[in-house]
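Consider this record:
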Amino acid sequence: MDLTTLERLPLWIGGAPTPSRTARYGEVTNPATGEVLRHVPFATREDVDLAVRAASSAWDAWRAAPALRRARVLMRFRELMETHKKDLARLVSQEHGKTLIDAEGSITRGIEVVEFATGIPHLLKGEFSDTVGTEVDSFSLRQPVGVCAGITPFNFPAMVPMWMFPLAIACGNTFILKPSERDPTMSLRMAELLKDAGLPDGVFNVVHGDKEAVDAILTHPGIRAVSFVGSTPIAKYIYETGTAHGKRVQALGGAKNHAVVLPDAHLGFAAEALIGAAYGSAGERCMAVSVVVAVGEAGDPLCDALAERVRKVAVGPGDKPESEMGPVITCAARDRIVGLIDRGVAEGAKLVVDGRKARIPGHDAGFFVGPTLFDHTKPGMAIYQQEIFGPVLVIVRERSLDDAIALINANPYANGAALFTRSGFAARRFQQQAEVGMVGINVPIPVPMAFYSFGGWRNSLFGDLHVHGMDGVRFYTRGKAVTARWPDDGSAAPGFHLPTLG
């Protein structure tokens, strides 16, 4: 089935495209043109229940399958994702707006999690202790939790779902994905490729929708675990509602990522790195750098270097090879970002480069905001406090590294932070004292590889475990300890006292 030709998208339940019972649909647009591409159903509670029943029916057989068999399905899925990567990138670019090279890179990062998940026979190995007592052995197991669900954002329609479902199904769970309604088609393509890879029907399901579908997932008694990536207010709601209904929940929230630049840094290198980190994907990344902390004498030359490069950023539709930055996701997002730029000017920040009037020839109906740079931003200003989620970079000036660290640690968000320096002493101090989940040293976006876990602190994460890496394995499994004795007769049976094993 060619999904891109459909006027109305289906759900994916029990291994097949399934029409929704809903009467409500949303528009999926091309952000570069404003054109409506297709319509997405807003699933009902009955739709979600149908998906849960399909996932529940598939679970017994899937969890009983050897881990190596599950891994081999993922190996084939990985090969199919690689084979179709360029077509998938075009689909991501069409619905999200990001450039083709950025879309392809995000798919690659998701595939890396699939590669990690194919090692599940090793990752699920427990511990064994011989003769902990007389003729008694102890060992541990990790077992799947059941039906799991993922609620994912628009900014990475391939990568973020792949942070979740490969590990979930590798561990022996079944999965229901609720992707963003703004760019939902990629989730259906992945469902098709999983089926082509040999995944049994019902192990992976897709339900589209809005709050009704989300609430149905959070309250359904058949769903055991929920993963979420999105804004902090919604992450808090997901965590509180899901846990109140007895579910295991990991909910990743918003960010305000800082990059500190010391006077000893290579300013040309730092400026170029910060441009990509701030304006790549039009700033619609939870790990985008949105605040540069210029320390001491780095301030003026860094601002000049950034301004010079910002003015050269090539803005255009994502499918044009020359484009470095595409549009934002919707008209409403564009208007919100422009409104925050207006507010930054009103509150007294220095507007160095103004992107409010971006005009792309032939794309007047597109949702474009040009790269914007502020200097002399103060922590009390809205452009510092709010997660803008757009192509806006602000410069805050501090006197010392300690002041910069204190600024980061006072922020309610704590996803990631970076330091640009040539000093090993400063780098070690920063990585030890910055209270965030991910730190980069001369790396502006410190998203870890798949074999480490991704997640923040404070209001950037609700729950104990991060996504992918070993935290992902722990989240999608439950631990069990077994103590075993095999006596030849009943002479060693314990009495009424608390048994000891010595």
